[in-house]
Prior knowledge:
Layout: E1 3-5, H1 13-27, E2 32-35, E3 40-46, E4 51-57, E5 65-69, E6 72-81, E7 85-87, H2 93-104, E8 108-115, E9 120-125, H3 126-137, E10 143-145, E11 154-155, H4 165-179
Parallel strand pairs: 6-8
Antiparallel strand pairs: 1-4, 2-5, 3-4, 5-6, 7-10, 8-9, 9-11
Amino acid sequence: MGYWNSRGLRGSQLEENLNITNKIYLEQGLAVVQKIPTSIKPIELDPAKGTIKLAYFEEKSTVDYLGNIQGIPVCFDAKETSQKRLPIANIHQHQMEFMEAFEKQEGLSFLIVHFKFCDETFLLPFNILKTYWDNAQHDGRKSIPYADFDQNLRIYPFHNILLHYLEAINHYLTGKEKQK
């Protein structure tokens, strides 16, 4: 069981932007993607404020988002870092296991990673993440440097869509097709 303190999980700007993007995708008929809530068990309440002061995660979550994009099942997690690298420690074993099982069922798994220092966001496909993950498990590098993120998979805004990640997915899948 994980620990939750009300100051810790206030929702990231990245997740807020993804939620807005996903709402627009749904309205435009482009995708159906939803945030998966993590169930918590309240332990201590503040009756005066009507808020939870202390709670525990009831079970390990899988990933942040699940959905379907034009016939393609997708699952992904949103990660933010203030550093010039994404620490592998930010990705949990159960998330890797879930994404790998999802891929085996012909779904598409990935991370959406936001680098706060440069205000840039990228799609990181599972197969690339898994290479870094496996290396880290065998005493290799414990992070993915910003410089290693594929600029072709950078996520940009488009009109009223804050994080138009469908373009990055399309670019990734097109490149994958060409490799066959």
